Amino acid sequence: MVDLVREGALALITLNRPEALNALSFAIIREIGAAIDEAAGWDIRALIFTGAGEKAFCAGADIKELIGRNLMEERAGAELGQQVFAKLDTFKVPSIAAINGYAFGGGLELATACTFRIASPKAKMGLPEIKLGLIPGYGGTQRLPRLIGEARALDMILTGRTVSAEEALAIGLVHRLAEGDVREAAKALAAEFTGYGLPALAFARAAVQRSMDTPIAQGLRIEADLSTLAYRTEDAAEGLAAFVEKRKPLFQDR
Predict the structure, then answer these.
(1) Do residues 115 and 88 touch, judged by C-beta distance below 8 A?
(2) Which of 11, 40, 50, 218 could be 214's S-S partner, Cβ–Cβ 3.0 to 4.6 Å?
(3) Boundary residue ending a domain (151, 167, 191)
(4) pLDDT of residue 222
């Protein structure tokens, strides 16, 4: 139900349950975690997520599995989703959600855990848990405000409304809308950063991520530390030399 393939420097994870709009059963969440772990062992430069079929990236949780659980099972389910999606926070290369259709509930939470989001113009997104008497449990209440701000996040979460791809772009929920096939657009986006050195990409991501939880004075110190580390890499020496010599740098990820 989760396919992992490698295409050159890219790893692609596809939620492959189109008959159920790629809904997230607990088994699928575990498979996503296993696929992320396997991809971590590959020599890749970007990780792309998408959904099988033309209708959905992922329509959210498998509702039938949520009924009749006890308190500890409910807590374990939330922690499972959070732990699997959190793997992307520290994954060694940037990740991209290629949102090819519906992205609701846990599907949108998976997308917001990715570094980038690119959507088909026909995509629809939302966190509709409130309509079931629930709230998002796989990170939605934490990541969405960090992406689009508290006011807009509360609007989406408390009303459970659906936003169009155009609105998602306008509020910063997605980075770009695809022209043509969204999976190919995601690969094109990946090509914009895969030529850079992995150490610098990792330092830059870490600096931005850590800024979300710290006062600006502490964040500036973090940036200074990571910037200094970046200068000490062989890639930095190559990049500076290439600039002076007016040539394209050849990064070695060192």
Answers:
(1) yes
(2) 218
(3) 191
(4) 85
